[in-house]
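<instruction>
Derive structure tokens from the sequence
<data>
Labelled lines for chain and fold
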Amino acid sequence: MPNISQLDYSLYIARQSAKSKTIKSSATPDMPEWKLHQEILDECRRRGWIAIHARMDKPTTTPLGTPDFVVIADGGRVLLIEAKSKTGKFTMPQMALRAVLNKLGHELHIIRSVIEFYQIAGRSV
């Protein structure tokens, strides 16, 4: 039996589920940021993870620069994720917080597609 990567397996499982259109659309290079956010939330829900996420349609109540997602994943992992559209740029508060996170030994992941989210999150199903 040939070995397949966890990513390939995850994509196969996703195609078998009702959310297959969501997974296929994630490869779109010009996906709006709100759609990327929704697909990440859907994937976290599918995996049973907790995604702490501020609304995009209202002013933030979190400190400026706070990552878009704090994901409580399996295996004791916490993922800090900033989702950007293809042309999305970092604000000064985001750059400052990233520097502080790095200094404290944390990594802020910047992603522009759901595929990048899969790569960061690992492909555990």
User: Anything to note?
Assistant: Confidence is low (pLDDT under 50) at residues 18-27.
